[in-house]
């Protein structure tokens, strides 16, 4: 239950509030919509070896591109669907993006070579960018400051169930049919979301607040975002910090299933690791009101730096790959910290962009993803039956991300209230 003070903090700020969904339904719908991205990524992880074998992929590390292409597609798609949602509304933007997603699913489901598979995955990423951008813009239409951060953390708490269960779901589909069946299941998810939005979720962008959908307006909006030090700095920071996380998603299957010999049970360990992000989101939703987004983000980045240094020292003295439980402990702490980072740093980047919420969400998401994808690919391709590239990646990227945060803040201190 929300206290009176928390309700005031999370108060809707639209001058003419539309009829809203019940709070729990709103959180659930936004979480499921956003989770389409996670489903399209994590459900594929157990199927990567089968896809590589069926499509004659020579280097098993190239299977990671099935994951990376979705992120690349999202980086491209967000820069379109964000401005589109600012011009035509949140719901039409979502409908169009889901249509592109469906086309990509059909292409990948019927692929006979790896190139077609990757093109389909790119389209899925472009389409999934709508479900990523629209909820952020929709929330920004109605919430701000720490209230927005709290809502985003609660949404991530629900959303985290999908990364926990998606690999098991993908594994089950492969067992019952084959990897192509996973893509058809994505179609059903997209259809369900379209119907739910159509019949339940009202449009939150008033007609008088809509902006023309022209290249000039888009470029001017992008320029405004890029020259806003806070927004730009936090976007760069979250992009760099997300790079090793993308590498983790791409290499989780070979590390856990093959290197550590877990076989099909690796999905259970993956679920435990995903749970740590969900717990972090819940903890963040309770702590952000009291401590603020900046303090928690600084703390989380520092924890990753310290634990990565300690883990590398352990590997140095052991002169071998660490036991599974040590590696799991490292990942649980690291991913917990990433859960703190995601909700807060995205909210910090969006905070000064309320007047261009759709375009702001697009630029923040697109730029951060464009930064994280090449970082994730480089770290992932460096994997050679050792977890060291991943740990070093987390260490270096969080150091850079922390420096970028200080640059964005210019030494600003945490206010008593606000961010």
Features:
419 residues; mainly alpha; Growth Hormone, Chain: A; globular; disordered N terminus; disordered C terminus; membrane; cell inner membrane; transmembrane; MFS_trans_sf
Coarse shape: globular
**How would you sum up the major sheet?**
none
Secondary-structure arrangement, i.e. CATH architecture:
Up-down Bundle
Count of discrete alpha- or pi-helical segments spanning 4 or more residues:
16
Q: Give the percentage of residues in beta strands.
A: under 5%
Query: What is the strand tally?
Result: 0
Provide the residue-averaged pLDDT. Answer: 86
Family: Belongs to the major facilitator superfamily. Bcr/CmlA family.
GO cellular component, one term: plasma membrane
Subcellular location: Cell inner membrane; Cell membrane
GO molecular function, one term: xenobiotic transmembrane transporter activity
Describe this structure as you would to a colleague:
The chain contains 16 helices and no strands. The chain has helices at 4-9, 23-42, 48-54, 65-88, 90-109, 114-142, 145-159, 161-176, 180-199, 215-227, 229-259, 266-291, 293-318, 324-350, 357-381, 388-409. It is mostly helical and 419 residues long. The chain starts with a helix and ends in a 10-residue tail after the last helix. It is found in: Cell inner membrane; Cell membrane.
């Amino acid at each position: 239950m929300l206290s009176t003070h928390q309700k005031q903090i999370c108060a809707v700020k639209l001058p003419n509030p539309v009829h809203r969904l019940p709070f729990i339904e709103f959180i659930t719908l936004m979480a499921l919509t956003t989770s389409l991205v996670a489903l399209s990524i994590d459900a594929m992880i157990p199927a990567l070896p089968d896809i590589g074998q069926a499509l004659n992929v020579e280097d098993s590390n190239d299977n990671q591109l099935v994951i990376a292409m979705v992120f690349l597609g999202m980086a491209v798609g967000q820069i379109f669907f964000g401005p589109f949602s600012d011009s035509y509304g949140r719901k039409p933007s979502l409908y169009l993006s889901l249509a592109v997603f469906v086309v990509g699913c059909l292409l990948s489901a019927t692929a006979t070579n790896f190139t077609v598979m990757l093109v389909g995955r790119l389209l899925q990423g472009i389409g999934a960018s709508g479900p990523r951008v629209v909820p952020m813009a929709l929330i920004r239409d109605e919430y701000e400051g720490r209230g927005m951060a709290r809502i985003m953390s609660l949404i991530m708490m629900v959303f985290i169930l999908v990364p926990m269960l998606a690999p098991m779901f993908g594994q089950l589909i492969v067992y019952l049919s084959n990897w192509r069946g996973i893509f058809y299941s994505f179609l059903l998810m997209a259809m369900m979301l379209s119907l739910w939005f159509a019949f339940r979720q009202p449009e939150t962008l008033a007609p008088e607040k809509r902006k023309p959908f022209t290249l000039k307006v888009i470029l001017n909006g992008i320029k405004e975002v890029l020259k806003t030090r806070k927004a730009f700095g936090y976007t760069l920071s979250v992009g760099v910090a997300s790079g090793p996380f993308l590498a983790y998603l791409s290499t989780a299957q070979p590390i856990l299933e093959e290197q550590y010999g877990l076989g099909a049970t690796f999905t259970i360990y993956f679920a435990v690791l995903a749970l740590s992000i969900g717990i972090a989101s819940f903890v963040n939703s309770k702590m952000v009101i009291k401590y603020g987004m900046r303090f928690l983000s600084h703390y989380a980045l520092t924890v990753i730096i310290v634990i990565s240094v300690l883990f590398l020292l352990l590997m140095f003295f052991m002169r071998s790959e660490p036991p599974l439980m040590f590696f799991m402990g490292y990942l649980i702490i690291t991913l917990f910290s990433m859960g703190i980072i995601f909700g807060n740093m995205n909210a910090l980047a969006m905070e000064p962009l309320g007047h261009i919420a759709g375009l702001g969400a697009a630029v923040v998401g697109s730029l951060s993803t464009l930064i994280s994808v090449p970082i994730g690919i480089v770290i992932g391709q460096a994997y050679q039956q050792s977890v060291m590239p991943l740990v070093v990646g987390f260490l270096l990227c969080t150091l850079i991300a922390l420096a970028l945060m200080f640059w964005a803040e210019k030494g600003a201190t945490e206010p008593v209230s606000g961010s």
